[in-house]
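Hello Y.,

Per our agreement to keep a running log of every chain we model this quarter, I'm adding this entry. I've kept the format consistent with earlier entries: sequence first, then predicted structure.
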Amino acid sequence: MLLLRHADQTILLTGDLEKAGLERVLTLPAPRIDVLMAPHHGSRTANTPGLAEWSRPRVVVSCQGPPRGWLSRPEPYTNKGATFLGTWPHGAVTVRSSRAGLIVETYRSGQRLVIQRGIGS
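Predicted structure for the entry above:
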C-alpha cells in the first residue's frame, strides 16, 4: 500500500491488499481519503463493506476487465457516498491534484469530476 499526499489531497493505492493485510489496515486510524485505488482489481473479497466504511473515499478507481458471471453483490463504496469508476465501462481514469482540488476524468465515458478542496472535506 502507498498513501500519497499532494496539495492537501490524499490518494490511497492499495495494490493487491486482501486477507490478513486488509484485516491489519482496518485496525489503523483511517486517514481522509480522496481517491482509493480498489484493491485486487475490484475483487469482491478484497473490496469489503468494512473497507468502504473505514476508508469512506470520495472516488474509487477499479482497474478491472469485463464482469464474469452474475454479480450478486454490488461494490460497497457508492453506498458510502463515493463515485465508483471501473475501467471496464469508463476506460482509463486520470486523476490530477492541485491546490484547488482534484480533477478526475474518464477516457471512454467522458466523465469529469471536479472536487474542490474545502467543499465536503
